[in-house]
Design goal:
621 residues; alpha+beta; 3-stranded antiparallel β-sheet; globular
Length: 621
């Protein structure tokens, strides 16, 4: 009977490689996507995750916030609150697949059958899992083999005494669906995943197929078969010797040893047979370096595995060994990835195409390996790093686009300089400084200083260049060094007034907060380390109109005072930021006018670079 393997891989959406909805929805195209076939994809649901959270939790969130008496406990936006915390992932992504890239490619007859079975699986998923709210789901037919990316929010609706009465929790969601933990190895998640695989297996049977073993298509002998062969060999040799041994040489001791050897071989064969039939387990790693490390160890040990969309599958009998390798992995290798990304960002600005980038990387000691994916091994590193694993901005197509965007920026800058020169515009000096900066950077004399740390370096994500562009904008709006100094004096005066008002508001909050503490001690029986019962009673005598029936109104006055202080203090922070930016703009404007801005940056960078190679980082002038 014809067979299909099945694959069900689960990842947390909060993990770096746990879920990529933009990729799933084809908001951008990875290298392995066949654009001509994208129209064949099936989109089951496409809802923004924030809209999904509003739909699911707004009512429960309002009920929770209405009960709060302290502002710091109010949750403004549940999705943002959950996303910024590390306690629970806002969503999970499952990748479901029948067959694999070798035996079930898209466009084949088996591929069409897999598509039908995946469609059946998807249509019943929400019925089986009422507590897993699907907000995005798509069946891909434009990659190597058919598969579904299914994104869902796990939520509970009961059993909570504190916090939201309805909220996000995978554990609680599975509890409500009836999945129970049976020891550490069979927890709720394991039981649920097994249940989903059974659902997939039922679909197979309905279509008159059976479930295939993951390794049944391997051409070469597996490790298990090899071990089995090796265990059989001594037994066969022993039996051969027994058959030909003369009756004179057969002694009771020889026969006893032979029988023991045979029994030992039988036990080992049974043990290996058990290993061979060991079920498969899915392995998922948020750190691609760690995954590469584990797979390299498995390759060296000739342990078979099958790569999946976000990890690999291997037999359960190897779990203990894999866990040991996981402990051996050192996260310090991450520094190689960071250095590679920084070097690519820096060198990319000097290149006209990606081929030139690869040459420059090789000139700096990197080893570049070309194949289905471009991989790079940093100097002194043990392993290659796939460029695509660095993020969507580092695959070959994205790198070429980044180069083109840099060229466009530089060409537009040249046009603006020529126009400013022809118009005798005051921006000519600043624009010329910007070009001088880009030329100096491309010579390798300046480092990458990103404004947005999580994004790749570019002319639009350059901390120093951003300062020059802001200055140019001010000058374009009519600002001069003299006018900016006048603005600075005015801002300083405003800051002084707002700071005094903020200090008064702070003192007011302090006084009222003491009263609030006293009222809570008197009327709520609160135990306080700030005020004694006697002090609270003295405080009450000052305000005889406040009693057990009216003290809550007084507490509302405290909250209002806190809001007033927060408002004024916020304005103080804004003014301080504005003053800092203005001071920086004035300083830069003076350097630009004197023609020393870029030279001073280069001078500072030389000091840093020399300090890096001198003992204790000391630079002697």
């Amino acid at each position: 009977m014809e067979s299909f393997s099945i694959s069900f891989t689960l990842g947390k959406g909060s993990s770096p490689h746990g879920g990529n909805i933009r990729h799933n929805n084809r908001d951008y195209y990875a290298e392995n996507v066949q654009k001509n076939n994208t129209a064949l994809n099936v989109e089951y649901k496409r809802q923004d995750i924030e809209d999904a959270f509003h739909e699911l939790f707004d009512e429960a969130l309002k009920e929770y916030n209405d009960k709060q008496t302290r502002k710091d406990r109010v949750i403004e936006d549940y999705y943002s609150h959950l996303k910024n915390s590390k306690r629970e992932s806002p969503f999970y992504e499952a990748i479901i697949q029948f067959g694999n890239t070798e035996d079930t490619p898209c466009g084949s007859e088996r591929g069409e059958i897999a598509k039908q079975m995946l469609d059946e699986y998807m249509k019943d998923f929400q019925k089986r899992n009422p507590n897993l709210f699907v907000f995005n789901a798509v069946l891909h037919m434009d990659e190597a083999s058919p598969h579904i990316h299914l994104d869902f929010v796990p939520y509970y609706t009961k059993g909570r005494t504190n916090g939201l009465q309805k909220g996000v929790s995978m554990k609680a969601a599975l509890d409500e669906q009836g999945f129970k933990a049976h020891g550490q190895k069979l927890n709720r998640l394991v039981a649920w995943e097994a249940s989903e695989r059974k659902a997939m297996e039922k679909i197979l049977h309905d279509h008159k197929f059976v479930r295939a073993e993951k390794q049944d298509y391997h051409k070469h002998m597996s490790v298990e078969d090899y071990k089995l062969k090796m265990a059989e060999a001594p037994m066969r040799e022993a039996l051969r010797k027994q058959h030909f041994v003369s009756s004179e040489k057969i002694t009771e001791e020889n026969i006893r040893k032979l029988r023991m050897s045979v029994e030992s071989s039988k036990e080992r064969i049974a043990e290996l047979e058990k290993e061979k039939s060991s079920p498969h387990k899915s392995f998922f790693y948020s750190d691609p370096d760690k995954q590469a490390f584990i797979q390299s160890r498995m390759d060296a040990a000739h342990i078979p595995y099958v790569e999946t969309e976000n990890g690999f599958d291997a037999q359960e009998c190897y779990v203990e060994q894999i866990r040991q390798w996981e402990k051996e992995f050192k996260s310090s290798s991450k520094s190689y990835r960071d250095k590679l990304m920084n070097d690519i960002d820096r060198l990319l600005m000097q290149c006209k195409d990606v081929e030139e980038l690869y040459k420059k990387l090789q000139a700096e000691g990197y080893t570049v390996k070309f194949g289905k994916y471009v991989s790079v091994r940093p100097p002194k590193a043990e392993r290659f790093i796939r460029l695509k694993s660095l993020g969507e901005e580092y695959n070959e197509r994205a790198l070429q686009n980044r180069i083109q965007n840099s060229v466009k920026f530089e060409n537009k800058l040249s046009e603006n300089i020529e126009k400013a020169k022809a118009d005798n515009s005051p921006t000519y000096k600043t624009l010329s400084t910007i070009r001088f900066y880009t030329v100096t950077f491309k010579k390798g004399l300046l480092p990458c200083r990103k404004k947005f740390k999580q994004q790749p370096f570019s002319w639009t994500n350059d901390e120093e260049l951003d300062k020059l562009l802001l200055l140019n904008k001010k000058i374009n709006q009519g600002a001069t060094i003299e006018s900016m100094r006048l603005d600075f004096a005015k801002l300083e005066k405003d800051l002084k007034e707002k700071s005094n008002a903020a200090e008064e508001a702070r003192k007011k909050v302090q006084r009222l907060a003491k009263g609030q503490e006293a009222f809570e001690v008197l009327f709520e029986g609160k135990k306080s380390d700030k005020i004694t019962l006697e002090e609270a009673q003295i405080y009450q005598k000052r305000y005889p109109n406040i009693n057990a029936n009216t003290y809550r109104q007084a507490i509302e006055i405290v909250d209002e005072a806190r809001r007033e202080y927060d408002n004024i203090n916020g304005k103080v922070k804004e003014l301080e930021k504005e003053i800092r930016e203005l001071i920086g703009a004035i300083s830069i404007a003076e350097q630009v006018r004197a023609g020393t801005y870029v030279q001073e940056l280069v001078s500072k960078e030389n000091i840093h670079r020399n300090a890096d190679v001198l003992p204790n980082g000391v630079f002697q002038l």
